[in-house]
Structure formats: C-alpha cells, structure tokens
Design a protein that fits this description.
Six copies of one chain form a homohexamer.
Chain A: H1 3-16, H2 18-24, E1 28-33, H3 41-56, E2 60-65, H4 68-77, E3 84-85, E4 88-89, H5 93-117, E5 122-126, E6 133-144, E7 147-162, H6 165-172, E8 176-180, E9 182-184, E10 190-192, H7 195-206, E11 210-215, E12 220-221, E13 230-231, E14 233-235, H8 236-244, H9 252-264, E15 269-274, H10 280-286, E16 293-296
Parallel strand pairs in A: 1-2, 1-11, 2-8, 5-8, 11-15, 14-16
Antiparallel strand pairs in A: 3-4, 6-7, 9-10, 12-13, 15-16
Helix pairs in contact in A: 4-5, 7-9
C-alpha cells in the first residue's frame, strides 16, 4: 500500500467519524481518570490526546482525576499511618494535607502540564477553588459487637452541592477544566472526596450528556469471576438487582452507586471503560465499538431529586 | 483483524489528525468547487462530508461553487446561443438570466440541500445578497486585423470589492455559507463572475488562511503534456515565470491569475487539488500527503494593494 | 402653489404619519407578494420602495414572494408538461427543478437586486437555507368514481415547521429577508410550497403583528360577482361562514385558509390588499384609508395549537 | 378629490422622503431651539413632532434648548437686577439660581414632558448631570477710558470640554436627550452657558453630521437691512469675511462664531433656520427645499484643534 | 497616640466593616432625603459622602429628595398663595411650576453638583424623564358639615406605576440617580408627589433591599411625647396597631403608610433614621449600631399585589 | 465613650477612606505575600481580610504567594537534599516535585480556602494553568578558580512571558486569583520561580498600578545595620546607586531587581512593606501613613522593553 493509499484510508476513516462528531457537538462530557488506570505513561498520553481532540471537535470536556498510588507512596515516604474503615481511608489532618499536596500539587499539575504540552488549553482546579465542591463530613458505617454504628473517619467528605459557575466560565473560554476531588465547607475545612463520586456529582450538576469512568478493568461482569460475563449494557434497575444479589465486587460498589446517582441526577449515560485500551474514549465516542459497560436509566427508578 | 482491532486502528488514525486539527482551529478556509469536478455524485457527497467535518472541527468554512455543465445544458434546452471571446462567454440578458437561474436556483440550492441533509448547517447566497460582490463590466481583449482592442461581452463582471459582513455573520453563527458567483453593481445590474476569481477575491477579503480550488486535474504540470511533471509546490514568482514561458494551458491562466492575486491579497496558501480523489480536502488538511499543487508567496513580488 | 408651499404640505403630510410610525415601531410585518400582482414594473418598484421605507422606520419587514407567471413561462420554454389536480400543480422532478430555478434563481434574485438598487439591504433565502421550512408531502384530494381519495401530486409540500433563527438573525442585522417558498425535509427533498401558505406559516412562527397578502383584486367580496360588495373588515368566524356558503371563489380558498391559520397561529391581522394600487402598503399602514380586506380573530374559534 | 385619492397622494409624498431617510439613517443631529423661536405653542408642538419623527426614522437626535424670555420673566418677578456687559448677562449667585431653576426646572421639564406626551422617549439633562459640560469662567471684554480689559461678569461659562458618555448611552437606548445649557467645573460651580455655544460644542463632541439652530429670523442676510439678501449657502470663509465687513448684526455674532467653531470641530453642516415656519426641520431634512442658511467648511480655514 | 497608631486603628476599623460590605454588595438601597433634614450644610456633605462610599463599595444607590423649605421660600418670594387641605398642599398651576423649578432646577441640580464635586458620578432625574413616575390625580379627604368628601387639590399625584428602565440603565453604568418627586401622566400633566411616597414606590419597583428615610427626628416613638419611648424595631403589624391607637403624629402618617407599602411591595427593611446624626447611613449599614427605627414585615399582613 | 459614640467615630473613619477608595477604584494591584511574613496566623488572616476588602471596594486584586518555610520543612521530612548556588536553590526533579506539591497543593490551597472562608471569592492557579508563566532555564553565575561561569542548577526558571488571559477572565468575574510561582515551557517542563520575580512580571503584564511586596522587615534601609535609616521613598535611580554602593543586603538584591524591573515594565509604584504590621495593606492604601518603602521611576532609566 503506497503512502497515498494509506492516507486515503485515513481520510476515509476520519470521515466515518462525522456522524459521531455531529452527535456530540456542544455536549458536555465528564471523564474520571485515576488510580491504577493512570500508571502507564503511554496510555496516559493517549488519554490526554483523546481529551484534547474531544475538546477541539466541540465537546465541552471536563476531567476529574484521582491519585491513589501517588498518595500511598507519599504517605509511606512521610511515614504517616492511615487506617481504612469500611473501605474509606481514615483522614486525619496529616493525611489530609498529604492527600491535598499530592492530588493538587502533583497529579493535577502534571495533568494540566501534559495537556498543555500536547497542545490543549487546560486549567487545574480543586473543589476549593471558587468554593466549588461543598461537602459535609461523611462517617463510616461499621458493624461490630455494638451493632451497626457511625464511626468518625476524619475529613472524608460527602458532596452536598456543586457550584458550576467557574467550570462553565472556563468551558465557555474553551479550556479543559482538570479537577482534583478536594472539597470544602463554609468553615473552610478541607475534605477528601472519592473521585468517582465527585465526577458523578459534577456531571449531574453540569447536566452532562455522558460520564466516563476510566478503570483498569474491562467493564462490569455479571459474575466477576467469569471474564466472559462482561456486560455491555445495563440499566440502573439491573445495577440495583446485581448489588442486591451480591454479584458486585466490594471495591466496585461506591463506583456503581456514583454511576446510578449520576444517571438519576440527569446524566444520560455512564460508561465504565477499560483505560488500558489505548484511545478507549475515542473508540467509545467515535466508532461503533462500545468498549466496557454502558449504564442507562431503568424504568423502575425515579430520580430522587 | 477483529472489528475491535479495526476500530482501535480507526481511533489511532483519528488521533493522528490531532496536530492538524489544532493547526487549523478557528482559521478561515475558502473552497472553490465546480464544473467538471462536481459531476460525480459520490465524489460530491465526499466533498460535502469533508466540508461539514471541517466546519465541526472549528474551521470557518466557505464554499464558492461554479456550475459550467448545468449552464451549458440549460442554454441548449432553452435554445439560447452564446459565443466565447478570449475564453469568456458573451453574456447577453438571456444568457445572464439562465446563468443566474442555474447557479442560484439549481446548483446552489442543491448544494445547500445536500449539506443540510448530511447534517451540516448551510445557507445559500449569491453575490447579490447584501450586495456582497460589487462588480464592474469586464471587456474581452481581442486581437484582430485592427490590433488588440476591448470587446463588449455583455454582463461579464470584474469583482471590485467584497462586503464580508453577511458572510462573517453567518460564520459566527456556525453556518457554512455557500456562494454562487453572481455579482452586482450600484445600478442593480447582474454580472456573471468567474467562480475561481470570485473565490480568490472572497478568500482575500475574508483574510482566509487557505484557498482550495477543487479541479478535475491532478494539479499543475511544469509541462502539461507530461503527467510526470506535476508540481507539488510553487511560488508566485515561479507561476509568473511559467506563464511567461507559455508553459501554462490556456484554460488554466485565469485560474492561476486568481491564485496569485489571492496570495497577493493576503491568503497564505492556495491549493489546486484533484477533486476526483475522494476526500482530497481531508487528505490535504489532515494528513502529511500533499495532494495537487500548493502555491505560496514568492520573494520578488510585492502585493500590489 | 409655490415650491415652498408644496414642500410645507409635504412636511405636514409626513408628520401626519407620526402616530402610525410610532405604532408599528419594532413590530414584525410579513408581506406576501407575487403572481399577477408582480407583473407591472412601476408597481413593483413602488412596492419595493414601500418595503424599504417600512424597514427604515423600524418595522421588521419580511418579504415572501411567489412567481407563477415566470414559472409558467419557463415550463413552456423547456417544454415541460404539468397537470393540475384540485388546483395544485403536479410537481414531478422536472417541474420542481424549473420551479426552484425560476423562484430562487430569477424572481428572488431580481427582487433582492431591486431592493438593494433602491437603497435597501436585502438578502435572498429559500426555505432550504438553514433548513428553514420543514415540509411533508401533500396529497391532492380528488373525488372521482372511486369516491374521495388522496392523489400523489409529486413534490408539493405542506409546511410542518419554520425555523426562524436565520430570519431573526438577518432582521437583527437590519436586513430585509426575501424568501422563496421552497421547502425541504430531513432527506433533503425539495418541495414546492404555496406562497400564501408559506407566508402565513412564517408570519405565525415569527409572531408577526401583521401579514399582508398583495393580490391583483380589490379585496374580498361578499358576493364575488358584485364589485360593490367589497368587505373591509371580516372576522375568522365570518370567513368560515362564507366558505361554507360557497361565497368564496375557488382560487381564493387556499389563500383564505392560510389567512385564518395565520391568525389562529398568533398573527394579529391579515390584510388582503390590492397590489395594483400604488403604495398600497403605505396607505394601509400610514394613513386612515384601509385598502382591501382586513381579517381579525373571531370569537368562536380557538387556536388549535 | 376623494379621501382615497388624498391618501394616495400622501403615500406618494411619504415615499418621496425615502432617499432622505436613507441618507440620514444612523446619523447624529443636534438641534438648538430656544428664545423667541420657542414662544408659539403650535410651532413648538410642530418642532417636537419633527424631533420624534427624526428619532423614529433612525436619526440620533439631541435637543439643546435656551430659555431667554422665561428667565427674564422670573428675574422680574423675583425682583433680581442683572446688567449686561458686551452682550453677556452679568450672572451673580441670585441670577444663576434663577437661570438654573427656569432652564432645568421649567423649560427642560416642559420640553421632556411634551415630547413624552406626543409619544417620544425623552430624558432631560443639564450639563451638570454626569459632569457633562466642563466650563471655565468667561470674562467680558469691555473697552472704556482704560482701554480694552476683561471684566468679571460672574458665573458665565466657557465650555472647555464635553463628556459624551451619558448622551451616547441615552442615544443607544433610543432616548432623545434634552439638554439645558448649564455647566460645571471641578469645584462644583454652576455656569450659565450660551445655548448656541453649548449646542455647537456638543455637536462637535458627538461628531454630529448636522447642527440646526432654530431661530426667529429667516436666516442670514448679506445685508441685514435688506430682506431680499437672504443667503442660502455660505462657507466659513465667507462668514469670517462678513464679520470683518461688519455686515453681521451684533446679536448674531456669538451665534455665528459657534457655527464656525462647530464646523471646525467636525460637524459637516450647520443650518440657521426659521423656527417660525412649521416643520422647518422636516422641510430641511426631507424635502429639496433648503430653508434658511446652510454653512459649510471653507477652504482657507483649518480646524484649530 | 502616634499618627501611625491612629492609622492602625483606622485600618482596624475599616476592616471591621468587611462583613457589612460583603452583605450589601450588589444590593439596591434607596435613600430618601429632604426637608428639614437637608438644611445643615455640613450634615448634607456627610450624607453625600456616605452615598458615594455606598456606591463605591458596590451598593446600587438611588437618592430621592424632597425640598420643602426651598419651595416655601420661593412661593413667598413669588407671592404665590397656597392652602393645605388634610395636610396636602393645594397645587394649582402657579404652585406646580414653582415646585418643579425648585425641586428639579435648584435642589436636584445642587445635589447632583455636590455629589459630582465630591467625586461621585451622579445624574439628576425627575419622574418625567423617560416618563418614569406615572401618576393619577389625588384628592384630599375632607370632613365638614357635608360629611367626608373628596376635594380637588390640583396637581397632587398618586403614583400608579414606576418604569425602572432608565434608573437601572444608570445604575448599571455606575451612576447614582438623583430623583426629584415630580410625576406625569399620559396627557403630559405635571404632578407634585410626596417624596416619601415616591421613594417607597421606587424602592418597591426596583426590588430594593432597603429604603432609608432620613428625617430630622430620632426615629419613631411609641409615645411621641416621651423621648425615651424610641422604637428600634417594629413590624408592619405593629405600625398598623400604632396608627389605630392614634399613637402616631399626624405628619408621620403618610411617611409610615409609605413605609408599610414599600415593605408590602417587596422591600426587605425600611429604616427611619435621624439625618441630624452625621454619617447615620454608614452607622446603620456598616456598624452594629442601629440608629432610628427599623420596620420589617409582620405576619398578619399579606402583600396586596 | 458610649458604643454609639464609638460607632460614630468608626463611621467618621470609614468616610475618611473615601478619597482613597475613589483613587484606586477599578485599578489592578498585585500583592506578593510569602515566606516568613506568612507564618503568624493572626497576621495572615488580617492580610486576607485586607485583600477581600480591596476586592470589594473595586480594586482588581491579585495575590502571588511564596512558601519558603513549608518547602524547607517538607524537603527535610522527605529527606531530600538541596544545595544553594549564588543564593538559588539547586532544583533537581525530586526538589521540584516537592516544591510544586507544597506551593500548589498546600500553601495555595490553604490560601484560597481561607479567603473563601472569610467571604472572598478566590481561585487558585499556578503558572502552569493556561500555560500562564512561560519560562526558560536559569543558570547560577558562580565565580571560582575558573573565573565567572554559569552553573546548571536544575529547574530554576526565568520568566519569559506572562499570558494574562486567564487572570483577566477571573478578575472580570470578580474573583481574587491566587497564584503559585510555578512556571512552564513548550515542552511541559516545570520551573521553580522566585515569587518576587513572578509577582513583578505578572504586575507588569497586567499593567498593574501598584505591586506590594509584603516582607518581614520594616522596609529598605539606607544602611541596613542602622534601623533609623529606613527609606520611605526611593527612585529606581537611587536603587541602582545603592546596589552599586553595596548598601543592599544580599537577600534583598533579587527582590530589588524585581521591583525595578516591574517599574520599568510599567507598574507605577512598588511598595516594600512590613507584613508584621497588621492591615499594612489598608494602611498603605487607605490612610496617609506610608508604611515601608515606596519605589517610583527615576529619570535616568528608560524602560528596556
């Protein structure tokens, strides 16, 4: 195949994206990216290029990131101990300061820097900027000899409300807002917020069309011990059924709750996709290959809001 | 290759366009399309899809069309005779009315309709709308036994000025303006304008970055009888040399003069490309394959304006 | 009377228009003009001057035109046959192409050109521009030995909806939009739309204050064989009564239905006026002479929308 | 002549204004009206209607008024004495307070009220509002046994600068600003400003196309004792010659100086017209009858600014 | 105390205002100032400085003024007699003209001038400008041998509606509108409006947060003969009770009715404060000292609108 | 003194600020705050309140912060060694990451949080956001046995240009931008920038009226061993003289160079003030006490740009 033939093929492929580009033009899409999915440098650059392209073809693109491994690393280096209760990190002041430094001062800055280096226009924010993510304190539910009771786990935050003014101003100026999931309250307290939950709340508040959760798994399995049981499409009704049946891995539960809440909050679809596949965002948006699992609203659930 | 693999390849190719998309974002590009290049229906649809994609990825896209074959056809059907003098059609009132009807009422409307059908947002204009293309009468230069003298060839127009207000308003509202090369003057006369020249004048007036002339040839040849002498890059200096040497086919001369004038008027590059290659616009813009001939400003020529 | 005295009289008359100018300032008025009313050149120029003056004194002025005689003429010259069924022209592809060329490429362009020549700022549009007039196919109702049944009459269009974005953008920029009654649909089909109906639908969609139908009759007669029975004012209730009584000439029926629908759609008044009277638009708007027939909403009819 | 015929004639006359309306559309015109020209109630209403019509047909219309007779009347009623020095009223605090009350509280308010009653949108201002008219103290030049020397005449003001912000804001909101010629300075002093001079300065600052001075004379005479010597057109050069020749009545001198300065300041034409002719503004603007005297820029004078 | 120490104290005090400045930022406050409260020059300057500061720290500040003593003075000097009926001045044409001249031409202009001199940006208006205060005629209720009946008292106006367009335009441009309580109607009549009532109506129409009535008393007394019975806070319910009990001084009644109506019309608080205390506006707004009497909405009254 | 008397005094003091508030309204002021000046919590809150008040009274307020002590602390805790060369910290990747985390993730976030808690509207930025601070690598000039030569000290940045778009967008939306002095380049490298220099460059790029450097000294001394030699006012000429004379403490030299460059870059005044004095910003802006040292432009130096 000559170079010209190859380029003709490229142009052909580019034009095949047209209906998809038209479909998403002017819509808002929130992408959550973090944790283990964020480790491989090549994949990371592929994700960033996808985001920039999404932005350029007219999608209002927002990135919310986590930062698990880096936090772990720094807590160790700083010799700060931190327990987990019911899957939530007990967050005292020392932990909170480390989390904030790593998320905002390292991961967020690195992400902004890479997006700008690759030709994007990115601005880093935390939920404290413009008092965007208003939180209340979250307690762990622990069951012991005294029965089920709430346990104080420090500065872990429940998102109460999202002020979208600042995000929308930046989107209108064609920036990609990159958001670290740190929350605040009226007293200026700092809260550690689960990135999936933050992304879901932000997507709902923005009236986003889609929320993408980039993970390091293929998607959701009907039976997580059986790789062939990958689910490509799921309603919120079915999610609730799966959770009742105990078919969902523990670590997946808060992620799924966030997905369901985002959909109840008005997001059209939530996609759990495999961040280990290069350009999985483009694949999902601009080809007919659905990657991972897509959630939509079921019939039996009414938005509680 | 599985479907997934194919889609991965697609995404990969899509992402390779990123630097090009970034480069042309927010720039104005005028495309001239017409005549024989416009005959094949499949190619036509490919061109229209290219234009819509250009528009969606942030290029301010303007289309100027011709309509030779259709005009010829209707003049025949209406039994209207029309001579040519020095390559210019003698345009009496009957011819002018037919030209206007075919260009504005058939070709322009058809083009707008197709762009809209394919998901674009197009608005048809002629140079009479908003008195956009102001013309004066053009005379043919004829050499006969009386020497070189000007001959009245009716309503053939020389573009004097372009009022871009209306075009810019439509571009700002995200429309693709589709322009038929019909001119006007203070007295409301109608003028038949060469589409290449109209496109060049409009590109210069808009401060366009590029002007594309979609033709039915591969590009410009150093020796037009030798297909292997295709020129990929040419300066305006060299164009003038070629024309002096008589190396340019007669029919190409007005096209080339329009190119040179567009560049002198501030357009960065003019591309003469082969409209018979599908998606040649995308190839030229979004791959490293230059198709056809690209003209840039030479050193020895200063813009006359 | 000296020249000065004459001019004093003129100024006096000009000032008498003041209350009318105040009344219509900033309001939208749609004028339908076409067919036989459009033949006389002097009258045409008078109408165009009226439109320009209306525009200058702050009326948002929209012109919708027909083009019957020119269409007839070209169908003949091109030797294209076309039947009528129940008063509607059977519109096959050849007829449709001719209609489009004549309306958009001849009548519309000529109108724009004349308005601009006389100092107006006009832009020509068809209902395909910006996909403004969305249509569905209309069938003729024919009664024969098989009873009443629908007959396919080709590309005759029923207006389903009007997208006013483009018209309003042009009105905000102080242009007079001049609209040819050609419709479209999602598949890019072209439709031949009755100009009276198009004008009524556009007036309703724009929330126009008034719709003027310029005709070549004096107005509506209570008994159309008796010239002295001219009706100066009529409610929609009475129109329906007249139609039931068979007092309305056949050719008038679609015109009247369009009037009634425009009023049900929110237009305050529809005026059927005699285009053969010079400056009849100014007479109607700026003097106390009502010319022709004014329709207003009756009590017994509720807008179906 | 039937009523219909009369109305046809009216419409015909209305349409004859079209070229004039087009010519003045969007231009700024300042009208100075006051003194004896303002006494007759019918004429006053005619002037107000002219102003409203001018505003409605797209002229940015500003009115500056004087108020001589009313001031005189109130000074008498309040038993306040006031001398004249070199034609300028000696303005002590008591005089100044009376002038301000009469101009701003009576004449201005009455004018605004009448314009609004007749359907206009007027807002009254003095030069103190928004600190619009910045003045310095003006001294009378008196010649006596001690030679020519400056004499303190109290709060008479020389206009130093005009801040057009407020006027332009009101014009953009479609109001007619009605301005009383009261000035101010940094210390908040109040100044009595000649209305002709104020109008000239405001017209120049606004970049007005025309300044109209409505007077109670027919215009300017070459020989003011000879009514047949009325001048219809005059250049600033000729004005200067006339003044050197002593051919100008004393009371006319400041008026003429203001005219000449307005033209030097960029106003295209200044018209001295006879306010006793009803609708003289409309006559001048919208017919071919020039009334009074029109001044234009001569060749030998260069704007001093 | 050194100068530095003093300045430190000043800065400390300035910063104590911060929460108050934050509270009122962007809110609208209407101040009524006039009559006897306006006599002392030093106090007047203090009030003006307060208004300018309010404006600069982001409060949309509107001033409505009265002018009793000046009106009295001029009526005397002009030898115009004017009776009072039920506390309302009988306002014939001569009185009305004097009132207008004094309020608009003297008090308003003086106020604007002083505000500008002190560095503010003020524009003077009357209720006639932009036809802002639309009134109907008010009759006095007189009880005599014929019982209670309405008596014609001339041009005294009842405010029917307030057109806030002009005021809001000026506030958006950062001006302080200074409004004289003169009203108008469709016929262009001039009305004398009570300044307290005008201020209340304007405050309600603007959706003001607060209305301040600057008076020459300390506030409202529970028993007006007992200075120690000053009321600091009062609900509209209690006002109605007080009025029923006859505990309110006659001159206070229209003031109180205006207060109650303003609150019913949507104003949050009305403050009757002692204009004889320097900077009482700042005291009320920016310290914890409430001065005078604050009215809020009671429970038993529902806004009639 | 009663509470009322105290409040009267407060109001009096508040009003004394009026001329200062008027002077700075709408102007841009950049404040640099950091290092030792930032340690005391009470002083910090006082500074933040000053900034919020400045913002509310209409000053476009930008904060640039440093973070020395926190950086030192974390480098120690993480056991990262870092030398100094010619007073500049050698910044390898490990140091750079720590600096970024502390400045952006701790100090900046804490500052934003405090400003928001106190009622301000703050948004945190680093120079990487929107690629605001474009840097090149800075080398230390070291003199040793090989003479004066440049030494690589890692990621220490020289500010090449400042893109103010993002800052201005935030200022227009009434936010206080809080900027950490981290720079970037086209390759996405991260640079450690001296906070004084960053503040100077940002102030110049914004066209700021003033730059405040909050320090932990009283100001600049003519002889730094003699506390009585504090300089209250200094021209850039004198600064250069002082530096030549060696009268400036070594640590002060980059600070002073930044001051001089800011003034050459167009900032009107730079103030070096004592951050240990509470509300020193308010003292400097709103009283007649100049605190610390004010620099202005001298005559002999021309801006190099």
């Amino acid at each position: 195949m000559t170079k010209m033939d190859k380029n003709l093929e490229k142009a052909q492929i580019f034009i095949e994206c047209l209906p998809y580009v038209q479909k998403f033009y002017g819509k808002t899409i929130v992408v959550k990216y973090g944790g283990n999915a964020m480790i491989n440098e090549d994949l990371k650059e592929a994700v960033f290029r996808d985001l920039i392209l999404m932005n350029l073809v007219g999608i209002r693109t927002v990135l919310v990131h986590g930062g698990g491994p880096d936090i772990e690393d720094y807590l160790n280096r700083l010799d700060i101990k931190s327990d987990f209760k019911s899957g939530l990190r007990v967050t005292d002041d020392a932990v909170m300061e480390t989390v904030s430094m790593v998320l905002v001062g390292k991961v967020n800055q690195h992400t902004v820097s890479e997006l700008n280096r690759l030709g994007g226009k990115a601005v880093g924010l935390s939920g404290k900027d413009g008092a965007m993510l208003k939180c209340t304190k979250k307690y762990a539910k622990v069951e012991d000899e005294n029965g089920l009771h709430a346990v104080d786990i420090g500065m872990v935050g429940e998102v109460e409300s999202v002020d979208c003014t600042l995000i929308n101003n930046l989107l209108n100026d064609m920036y990609i807002p990159v958001i670290a999931p740190i929350g605040t309250d009226e007293e200026g307290q700092t809260y550690n917020v689960n990135a999936d939950i933050a992304a879901g709340k932000i997507a709902a508040a923005l009236g986003a069309m889609k929320l993408f959760l980039l993970t390091d798994v293929e998607g959701l399995y009907r039976d997580f011990s059986d790789k062939s049981s990958l689910i490509s499409h799921l309603s919120t009704d079915e999610v609730n059924d799966l959770m009742k049946q105990g078919a969902v891995k523990k670590g997946m539960i808060p992620k799924l709750e966030s997905c369901v809440n985002a959909i109840y909050g008005g997001v059209q679809n939530v996609h759990i996709i495999d961040g280990r596949v290069p350009h999985s965002l483009l694949l999902e948006l601009f080809t007919d290959s659905g990657v991972g699992t897509m959630l939509t609203k079921g019939e039996s659930h009414v938005c509680s809001e």
